[in-house]
């Protein structure tokens, strides 16, 4: 056994093992890129990491790329990102920060996916300097933001409001688009809407 170990080490196995471990640690850290932190939490909320592990949402805790913010009834989470944008995740919601890069370069990006529920978002430096690189996926719609304060919501069937995707603009404007090609500019103090079950002949936006 000792002779085999000495032969393996001399043949380059040990340096290869060290290099493999180093590459793994580098890859793991890349996937765990910090995007900001939790500013405040109300009620019950959790954060699910890209590894599937769930942790309690706590103020001042870091948030990473691919984290899913999960809120329950009565729960809310405020997340502040490094480009000074913010996300207020409403109750009964799931929101994923899918991509984030902020190095004050042309390829900076922020991409967020609202899986369910609602979020209020105030744009930061990325959206102000490179609007095309700041987007939200909300159900069947994609929302591009332009220096805005917006509310996005997915309303399921069985609620008081009609089921579909809502996009309300408090300030600035957004471009709401569908994969089928339809798009519309939503201006300040107006709403964009795409129905979950459109009626015959009804516009999708």
Give an overview in words:
The structure is a single chain. With 205 residues, the chain is α+β, with helices and mostly antiparallel strands. It contains three helices and 14 strands. The protein is 16% helix and 48% strand. Strands 1, 2, 3, 4, 5, 6, 7, 8, 9, 10, 11, 12, 13 and 14 form a 14-stranded mixed beta sheet that branches. It is globular and about 50 Å long. The N and C termini lie far apart (71 Å). Residues 1-9 and 13-30 have low confidence and may be disordered.
Shape summary? globular
Could you estimate the helical fraction of the residues in percent?
Answer: 10-25%
Total beta strands: 14
The arrangement of helices and strands along the chain is: HHEEEEEEEEEHEEEEE
Residue share in β-strands: over 45%
Please, what is the oligomeric state?
A: single chain
Low-confidence stretches: 1-9, 13-30
* End-to-end separation: 71 Å
Could you outline the blueprint of secondary structure elements for this entry?
Layout: H1 2-10, H2 13-31, E1 34-42, E2 45-48, E3 54-56, E4 62-64, E5 68-71, E6 76-81, E7 86-89, E8 94-101, E9 109-122, H3 125-129, E10 134-138, E11 141-155, E12 164-178, E13 183-186, E14 191-195
Parallel strand pairs: 9-10
Antiparallel strand pairs: 1-4, 1-6, 2-3, 2-5, 5-8, 6-7, 7-9, 8-9, 9-11, 10-11, 11-12, 12-13, 12-14
Summarize the structure.
This protein is of the alpha+beta class.
Give a quick set of tags describing it.
16% helix, 3 helices, alpha+beta, globular, 14 strands, 14-stranded mixed beta sheet, 205 residues
């Amino acid at each position: 056994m000792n002779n085999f170990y000495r032969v393996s080490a001399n043949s380059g196995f040990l340096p290869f093992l060290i290099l493999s471990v180093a590459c793994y640690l580098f890859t793991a850290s890349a996937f765990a890129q910090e995007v900001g932190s939790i500013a405040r939490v109300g009620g019950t909320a959790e954060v699910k990491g890209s590894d599937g592990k769930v942790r309690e949402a706590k103020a001042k805790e870091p948030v990473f790329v691919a984290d899913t913010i999960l809120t329950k009834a009565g729960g809310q989470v405020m997340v502040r990102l490094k480009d000074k944008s913010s996300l207020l995740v409403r109750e009964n919601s799931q929101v994923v920060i899918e991509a984030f890069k902020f190095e004050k370069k042309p390829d900076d990006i922020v991409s967020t996916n609202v899986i369910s529920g609602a979020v209020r978002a105030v744009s930061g430096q990325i959206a102000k300097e490179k609007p095309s690189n700041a987007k939200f996926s909300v159900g069947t719609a994609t929302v591009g933001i332009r220096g805005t304060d917006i509310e996005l919501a997915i309303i399921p069937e069985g609620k008081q409001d009609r089921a579909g995707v809502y996009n309300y603009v408090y300030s600035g404007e957004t471009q709401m688009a569908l994969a089928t090609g339809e798009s519309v500019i939503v201006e300040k103090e107006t709403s964009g809407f795409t129905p979950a079950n459109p009626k015959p002949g009804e516009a999708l936006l």
